[in-house]
């Protein structure tokens, strides 16, 4: 089982400058790989390409040797840095959490998502509480890979370590591969078995 990007080239709006030029990388099932690089190097763009959120690139993204299925729940789930931009502001959080079907209520408690949060609107939660919902939403049985794009950057150290412990433990139990996009090389060193630098 493997998620691969092969010879990806991408530029926004036919701009002269390529954001990504001939990028290839792979993440095996159950592996945690760091993608580290300075601001503006195209890390988030690559994350979106992996998760099927950007079209029109050159090259291929393959999951177990096949194109990633479209029009169904995406087995490659992207979690962003800014949870407030990742949820529908017109949905109560219980609906957001259940968007892709049933969820594990034990995992909800483990994630520190209180039952009363489910009946609130996104603007009635703190950033850390909302990020727990976004992380949990990505941990569905159909998920095979997670693209974690700066998911803990705006969290305090305790919340950051709690969330990573849960995600890493869940990934281990379910053989999920994770691409950890971060500026924080120290974080990548602690949680990743391999680090790729995007120059
Ligand atoms: N929607 C867009 N339209 C045009 N250009 C964009 C768009 N999104 C990103 N870019 C540009 O593409 C380049 C790469 O951006 P990207 O967000 O992928 O980098 P990054 O490495 O993730 O940066 P950071 O670490 O700051 O998040 C940047 O120069 C950015 O300005």
Chain-wise SSE layout:
Elements (H helix, E strand, L loop, with lengths): L1 E9 L9 E9 L3 E5 L6 H8 L7 E6 L2 E2 L8 E4 L3 H4 L6 H5 L7 H6 L16 H12 L6 E5 L7 H18 L2 E6 L2 H7 L2 E4 L2
Parallel strand pairs: 3-8, 3-9, 6-7, 7-8
Antiparallel strand pairs: 1-2, 1-4, 4-5
Bound molecules: adenosine-5'-triphosphate.
CATH topology: Rossmann fold
The averaged pLDDT comes out at 93
Low-confidence segments, given as residue ranges, are none
Q: Indicate the CATH class.
A: Alpha Beta
**C-alpha termini separation:** 27 Å
InterPro entries: AAA+_ATPase (IPR003593), ABC_transp_ATP-bind (IPR050319), ABC_transporter-like_ATP-bd (IPR003439), P-loop_NTPase (IPR027417)
Family: Belongs to the ABC transporter superfamily.
GO molecular function, one term: ATP binding
Domain ABC transporter: 3-199
Explain the overall architecture:
With 199 residues, this protein is an alpha/beta fold. It has one domain (29-58, 73-197): Rossmann fold (3-Layer(aba) Sandwich). It contains seven helices and nine strands, in the order βββαβββααααβαβαβ. Helix 6 links the parallel strand 7 and strand 8 (177-182). The structure holds adenosine-5'-triphosphate (ATP). This is ABC transporter ATP-binding protein. GO terms for molecular function: ATP binding. Belongs to the ABC transporter superfamily.
């Amino acid at each position: 089982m493997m998620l691969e990007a092969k010879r990806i080239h991408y530029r926004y709006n036919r701009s002269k400058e390529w954001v990504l030029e001939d990028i290839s990388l792979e993440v095996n099932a159950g592996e945690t790989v760091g993608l580290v690089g300075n601001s503006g190097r195209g890390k988030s763009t690559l994350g979106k390409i992996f998760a099927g959120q950007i079209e029109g690139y050159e090259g291929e993204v393959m999951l177990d040797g096949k194109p990633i299925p479209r029009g169904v729940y995406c087995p490659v789930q992207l979690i962003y840095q800014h949870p407030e931009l990742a949820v529908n502001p017109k949905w109560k959080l219980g609906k957001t959490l259940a968007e892709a079907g049933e969820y594990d209520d034990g995992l909800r408690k483990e994630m520190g998502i209180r039952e009363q949060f489910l009946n609130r609107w996104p603007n009635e939660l703190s950033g850390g509480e909302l990020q727990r919902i976004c992380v949990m939403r990505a941990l569905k049985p159909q998920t095979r890979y997670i693209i974690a794009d700066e998911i803990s950057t705006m969290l305090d150290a305790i919340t950051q370590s709690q969330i990573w412990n849960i995600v890493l433990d869940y990934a281990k139990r379910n053989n999920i591969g994770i691409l950890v996009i971060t500026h924080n090389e120290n974080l990548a060193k602690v949680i990743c078995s391999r680090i790729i630098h995007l120059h």
